[in-house]
């Protein structure tokens, strides 16, 4: 924490206002999902599609090559966001074009998710169930693939009615074959645009000026830019990779930084406090 007192005051103010004033905005890949498990990287929503059911060997090879080129750029502490922006558009556009060529079938997505290495962070059930129980809206804002993301949370039994998703959704033809991606492309560094054009209009998020924001990328900090008249905003950043290179920037950017923490323990503890009885404080 850069400023412990600010963190404490924000949490106290959120607790005084109660769950009725709160919304949670979270990134998905490597924020709600784990970064690694037993020393191996956990699949992102894009990487879940790397399954022979859906794509051929050549496509796997090309997607991996792109990942090896662009992921280091995405997390490079020495490059500015302005510099990264066009390169991220390039990465996402190339990957989506490759996926479209593969004629992916909608009816096989669930099986690909079941067979993948994807894993939500430890404590995810307490997190999702707690928000649902207190009717706190959870906006999942992801540059991943929305259809796959939905299937991951469905298979983990946490796709509750308070969950709203903004992501890249697949557009299937009438036979259930992928033909395009819907709407404007979302990548790691243009979430502000999506926040203003989509999140700002979500009725369920209106009248909730307190925001708990979770992300693993500096681009995730703009996910709350669509909130009108925010009062208390607490940001939590998961620093998963390139820790030493990025620590200082993360500490200067997020209110709380969690270093190589594969759990939801801190967000869960904060939420538990916010929803604890006001009379006992
Ligand atoms: P997020 O917004 O839910 O975190 O999703 C974006 C992440 O997806 C980003 O950190 C990079 C990752 N990604 C892949 O793993 N493979 C890909 O092919 C692409 C385009 C992105
Ligand atoms: Mg992420």
Automatic annotation (TrEMBL):
<keyword id="KW-0546">Nucleotide metabolism</keyword>
<comment type="subunit">
    <text>Monomer.</text>
</comment>
<dbReference type="Pfam" id="PF05822">
    <property type="entry name" value="UMPH-1"/>
</dbReference>
<dbReference type="GO" id="GO:0008253">
    <property type="term" value="F:5'-nucleotidase activity"/>
</dbReference>
<keyword id="KW-0378">Hydrolase</keyword>
<dbReference type="GO" id="GO:0000287">
    <property type="term" value="F:magnesium ion binding"/>
</dbReference>
<dbReference type="InterPro" id="IPR006434">
    <property type="entry name" value="Pyrimidine_nucleotidase_eu"/>
</dbReference>
<dbReference type="GO" id="GO:0005737">
    <property type="term" value="C:cytoplasm"/>
</dbReference>
<dbReference type="GO" id="GO:0000166">
    <property type="term" value="F:nucleotide binding"/>
</dbReference>
<comment type="similarity">
    <text>Belongs to the pyrimidine 5'-nucleotidase family.</text>
</comment>
<keyword id="KW-0479">Metal-binding</keyword>
<keyword id="KW-0460">Magnesium</keyword>
<comment type="function">
    <text>Specifically hydrolyzes 7-methylguanosine monophosphate (m(7)GMP) to 7-methylguanosine and inorganic phosphate. The specific activity for m(7)GMP may protect cells against undesired salvage of m(7)GMP and its incorporation into nucleic acids. Also has weak activity for CMP. UMP and purine nucleotides are poor substrates.</text>
</comment>
<keyword id="KW-0963">Cytoplasm</keyword>
<protein>
    <recommendedName>
        <fullName>5'-nucleotidase</fullName>
        <ecNumber>3.1.3.5</ecNumber>
    </recommendedName>
</protein>
<dbReference type="InterPro" id="IPR023214">
    <property type="entry name" value="HAD_sf"/>
</dbReference>
<keyword id="KW-0547">Nucleotide-binding</keyword>
<dbReference type="GO" id="GO:0009117">
    <property type="term" value="P:nucleotide metabolic process"/>
</dbReference>
<dbReference type="InterPro" id="IPR036412">
    <property type="entry name" value="HAD-like_sf"/>
</dbReference>
């Amino acid at each position: 924490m850069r400023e412990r007192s600010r963190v404490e005051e924000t949490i106290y103010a959120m607790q005084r206002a109660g769950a009725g004033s709160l919304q949670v905005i979270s990134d998905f890949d490597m924020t709600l999902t784990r970064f690694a498990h037993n020393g191996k990287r956990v699949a992102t929503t894009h990487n879940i599609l790397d399954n022979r059911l859906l794509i051929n060997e050549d496509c796997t090879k090309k997607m991996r090559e792109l990942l090896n080129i662009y992921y280091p750029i995405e997390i490079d502490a020495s490059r500015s966001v302005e510099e990264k922006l066009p390169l991220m558009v390039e990465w996402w556009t190339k990957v989506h074009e490759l996926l479209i060529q593969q004629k992916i079938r909608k009816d096989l997505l669930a099986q690909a998710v079941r067979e993948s290495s994807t894993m939500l962070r430890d404590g995810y059930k307490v997190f999702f169930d707690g928000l649902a129980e207190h009717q706190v809206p959870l906006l999942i804002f992801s540059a991943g693939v929305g259809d796959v993301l939905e299937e991951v949370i469905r298979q983990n039994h946490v796709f509750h009615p308070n969950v709203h998703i903004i992501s890249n959704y697949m557009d299937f033809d009438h036979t259930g074959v992928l033909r395009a991606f819907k709407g404007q492309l979302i990548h790691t560094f243009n979430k502000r645009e999506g926040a203003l054009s989509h999140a700002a209009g979500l009725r369920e998020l209106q009248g909730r000026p307190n925001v708990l924001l979770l992300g693993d990328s500096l681009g995730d900090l703009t996910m709350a830019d669509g909130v009108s008249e925010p009062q208390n905003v607490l940001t939590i950043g998961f620093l998963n990779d390139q820790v030493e290179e990025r620590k200082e920037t993360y500490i200067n950017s997020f209110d709380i930084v969690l270093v190589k923490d594969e759990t939801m323990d801190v967000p869960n503890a904060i939420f538990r406090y916010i929803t604890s009885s006001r009379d006992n404080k």
